[in-house]
Amino acid sequence: MLEGFMIGLTTAFSLTNILMVIGGCLIGTFIGMLPGLGPMSIIAIMIPVAITIGDPSAALILLAGVYYGAVFGGSTSSILINAPGVASTVATSFDGYPLTRQGKAGKALTVAAISSFAGGTIGAVLLMIFAPALASVALLFHSAEYFALMVVGLSAIAAFAGTGQVSKALLMTLLGLMLATVGEGVLFNAPRFTMGIMDLQSGIGFITLAMAMFALPEAIYLVLDPNRSKTAEGGEQGEIKELRITREEAKSIAPVIGRQSIQGFLIGVLPGAGATIASFLGYAVERNIAPKEEQEQFGKGAIKGVAAPESANNAASTGSFVPLLTLGIPGSGTTAILLGALIALNVSPGPRLMVDEPQIFWAVIISMYLGNLVLLILNLPLIPYIAKVLAVPRNYLIPFILFFTLMGAYIGQNNATELLLLVGLGVTATIFRFADYPLAPLLIGFILGPLLENNFSRAMQLYEGVSFIWERPMTLALLVIALLLVLLPSYRARRARDRAEGVADGD
Amino acid sequence: MALDRWIAIVVLLICLAYGYAAFFTMDDALPPIMRRAPIWPSSFPKVLVVGAILMTLIIILGLEKGPQKTEAADINLARLHEYKVGQALMLIGLMIAYALLLRPLGFLASTFLFLTVGSFILGERRFLMMAIVSILAAGFIWYLVDGVLGIFLRPLPGFLVGG
Questions:
Q1: ipTM score here?
Q2: CA A101, CA A247: separation in Å to the nearest integer?
């Protein structure tokens, strides 16, 4: 492990990679503050940029930086104007915004930054311990287990997708998998379901689909309902001063941060749960275990109420890298997009990653430390200036959001047909969203589709049929777990959903 | 009937078409040697489509009770006319126009038009400001993508550069 750590250090501490982290964090913070562009959309827009860089470690470091930055930016707008840019920072606004109204915006931002830093750092340490262990187990897996594991992942995502109706989430997952079968597959060299259209031969671009599923519907929602895009136009944006916190305050939030970092990380590791659930659960747990007099402060500007969701959501974001890097299975929409980016860069995440390309794996972990440090020492002092972006009027903001969405799909493919496909899929996705169909499962299904089919096919070939399901106990056990996940409705996701609606999907 | 069931019906029809292709037409061109293999190109799609049809039926027949919607934060379809539907539709049209005009007009002109018309649709009337913002943005982004990232974007209309 120490050896890997050193490899990571040398990779991450090159000048380019440090610049990548800094640049990524700044871009992420900047865009993450805006309503309508969640981390998923930002990462999807940045993918063509990352691919142009060419070096997978640098690209992944950039994207990871963008991810942390976006989560941080989301909490900033939650605190300052009560408009969470992303779902995982909704819980932060419960206490962050009251603090702003009391003129303590600076304090709330500092608590948020320190909690995020601690959550992210503790998460990174846990990742460093967990991932290699999990990867060594995963090396024993065969294609049958991989197939079953992906089914478990997809079922968990459907079960936690948060609409309360598992059948809808499952349907979306299956639709995603079906969309993935369009085009020429790796396995058979024959075009499938292209309906004779040449442009479909190579399948649907995943960036196009990501934009269509998240960025475009959110933008259309912003247009439909002007109240959603609360920017600071003439509104009451708190003056940001007094960034310091006292020793007593630091002492009171330290145990909260410690608990929530670990809890958040563990929730983040589970597929389908992710940062949103972690932040709500963290907030709820801390409120329940706080002493009576402090309990009443929650919701009125308790700094613990900022510290808990912030450390939890950052630790969970880090935790969601565990299944991605060790099993190659994304647990959330954001990590699914990162998986797509990795595949585009010719890196296949999974247990072999640590053996074959340790520099990528370790560089990402080191960059997590770096990214958290950058957020704390660089972004925090800059926040009063970055927050000016919140004053951009809606009339200019929305055309730019739409334009970036189009560009994200265009520069990856340089094909104008892709734009028409994007608009078509985006309008469809908006209609789906009207009727409460969750969109993340579709994208995750789409990205996992080829992997799922390949492993399924390989297992079928090896066992000359489906007998691998009962001949391999591990596979059978995993499939039973998948079935249970689908059948047992999740009350936690329901509770989180009631509050998380109305902001950009994703964590 | 609620919108989610209408959607499920449409999805069901798509699934039936997909399923028809998977079960009946796709394997016609399969060479005989491949027919011996335990897995065919259509095997996985068949599994998927059966599952998807089951799910659409569950939704159409209302077998799974959904939770009552109470959130005010989301779009309420019953009051759709209170939202800016016209603006949204016009912006969608604008995006389609952008997709169609990007090649013939070139990146700079079409982006300038897109940003200006977009703000105009949203109610902006400070024309000078709109023009300045759009020109600067179009130029800057073109420089960034073409110059810095090295991804080619044709800046000018096709007839000016002969392509």
A1: 0.88
A2: 23
